[in-house]
Amino acid sequence: MTNDTAGTTLPPAGPARSVHLREDLRVFARNIPGGSRVLDLGCGDGELLDWLIRRRSCTGTGVEREPGAVIAAIGRGVPLIELDIEHELDLFADDSYDAVVLSRTLQALLRPDLVLSAMRRIAPRIIVSMPNFGLWRHRLTLLSGHMPRSRDLPFSWYATPNLHHSTLIDLEPLFDAAGLGIVKRVPLTASGRPRALGQVGANLLASSAIYVLERVGDA
User: What is a single Pfam family found in this protein's UniProt entry (predicted)?
Assistant: First the structure.
């Protein structure tokens, strides 16, 4: 499958139409050039793609399976495909998009390494976000004998969809192994805003991080 199904944009927003964008998604949007073809994996209710289409003249496709999110995305008019991110990305042709985004989903995948490799094939630019298990509050909670819970890791251990937990410094070698170079790392606060201190102490103090990645080498 190519991105032919993603070629239809929404009509221009009317003056009364307001498209809200979550704080962390604003960082995603700032790193996607206007007019890009965007594949949004695990797009949720389509908030990011809706904004990019309406405000940045982008085209694209959302991928989602959760029923409530699918209905919400369709209600926004976002082009949507329901498929399994782990097993069906081979339906997308090589270089069929300019950017692939994956927000708050990497840790919930059985094989994030294989998904990153597939994303690398589909587009030259990849943007992902990941909770930081190395946050100091999480470390203190573990020392007390309990599993951490936070805004970025809100679930009890027995109900979490997250299969993998990683610190930022453990996450970054995965990108290298997948043939992806780090163009930018944006450490975030618990509210999803970029940290005022930037990279200083990020592995200890950032609640999560967004990575802008680009294809490197022949991996």
Answer: MetW
Which is it for strands 125-131 and 208-215: parallel, antiparallel or unpaired? antiparallel
Q: What are phi and psi of 191, to 5 degrees?
A: -85, -5
Say how far residue 114 (Cα) sits from the centre of its chain: 15
Which has the closest alpha carbon to 186: 206, 160, 161?
206
DSSP tally for the chain: helices H, then strands E: 7, 7
pLDDT digits (tens, 9 = 90+) for 36-64: 999 999 999 999 999 999 999 999 999 99
**Closest CA relative to residue 23, chosen from 182, 189, 137:** 189
The rounded radius of gyration (Å) of the Cα atoms in the chain is 17
Strand partners, 214: 125, 181
User: Which top CATH class is 3-132+165-215?
Assistant: alpha beta
Query: CA nearest 2: which of 60, 71, 78?
Result: 60
Q: What is the pLDDT of residues 68-106, one digit of tens each?
A: 999 999 999 999 999 999 999 999 999 999 999 999 889
- Domain boundaries in the chain? 3-132+165-215
